[in-house]
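Tip: read the tokens left to right.
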């Protein structure tokens, strides 16, 4: 994969990444931004207070990890835990290119806090028990993420900080998943949804399945176990709209899709989205879209 262009030298940076209630501090320095300029041969056996990730991009790298040799072919990466003595064994004639980054982590909340959830516990159990391991980046995911992170930090497009944090979160979670002692399946206790997550699911499902009926806000309020007044507040907070407006938007979006992708007559589409009177549908559609249903269909499917 082609490396990002270097618009300017990039100074070492530290980035805080949050995954659940685990905080990662990620360090990116010359070994990440300009690995070709880093003389790996000069480092004798040493260790760090951080985790290190090494990804071999070219050639064959031989690492000495706690007095044991490990071969890392091209496309292989390894994770070196804190306090682990390591060095790179290489021949001056070997052409080896690798990229590395460092990180450490901590729980954002106290371990006894009720705010902790099963996902956080799983992350911490895997990280706490992590020993040296190596894996093949068979899908190229790690390489793609590192390349994308480097591009964001060098080129600095709009939103690059948020994008970088998102990419680093993906990378760290992938490392946790590929650790040899990581659980093979998700924790069995589901992470509880917050009330708004649960409400949006119920609201979305209600409009998606009842848009063609004579629905009433009292029915949705009953399903949510709230009053109609509370329902108005919930819809305004979550969707910035009212019950009637959301119903109208749902019906119009489906009607627009049917007009574009089917040959069904307009009166059939009117009935399909909950209008007993084609005239009422025609008026509502024109007010919402700015065109009659037939004019909209012709616009979306122009004839040669």
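Filled-in amino acids:
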């Amino acid at each position: 994969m082609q490396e990002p262009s270097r618009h300017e030298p990039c100074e070492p940076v530290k980035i805080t990444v949050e995954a659940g209630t685990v905080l990662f501090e990620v360090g990116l320095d010359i070994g990440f931004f300009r690995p070709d300029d880093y003389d790996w041969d000069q480092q004798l056996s040493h260790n760090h207070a951080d985790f290190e990730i090494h990804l071999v991009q070219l050639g064959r790298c031989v690492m000495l990890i706690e007095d044991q040799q490990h071969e890392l072919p091209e496309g292989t990466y390894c994770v070196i835990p804190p306090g682990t003595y390591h060095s790179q064994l290489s021949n001056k004639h070997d052409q080896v290119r690798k990229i590395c980054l460092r990180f450490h982590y901590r729980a954002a909340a106290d371990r006894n806090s009720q705010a902790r959830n099963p996902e956080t516990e799983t992350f911490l159990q895997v990280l706490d028990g992590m020993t040296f391991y190596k894996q093949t980046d068979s899908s190229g995911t790690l390489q793609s993420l590192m390349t994308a992170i480097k591009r964001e930090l060098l080129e600095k497009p709009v939103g690059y900080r948020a994008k970088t944090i998102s990419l680093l979160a993906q990378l760290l979670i992938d490392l946790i998943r590929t650790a040899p002692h990581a659980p093979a399946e998700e924790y069995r206790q589901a992470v509880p949804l917050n009330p708004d997550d649960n409400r949006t699911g119920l609201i979305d499902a209600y409009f998606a399945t009842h848009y063609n009926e004579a629905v009433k806000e009292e029915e949705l309020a009953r399903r949510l176990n709230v009053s109609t007044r509370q329902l108005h507040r919930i819809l305004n907070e979550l969707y910035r709209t009212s019950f009637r407006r959301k119903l109208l938007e749902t019906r119009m979006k489906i009607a627009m899709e049917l007009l574009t992708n089917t040959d069904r007559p307009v009166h059939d589409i009117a009935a399909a989205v909950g209008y007993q009177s084609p005239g009422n549908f025609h008026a509502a559609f024109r007010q919402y879209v700015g065109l009659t249903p037939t004019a909209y269909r012709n616009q979306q499917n122009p004839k040669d």
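DSSP finds eleven helices and nine strands in the chain. Residues 1-7, 187-193 have pLDDT under 50 and may be disordered.
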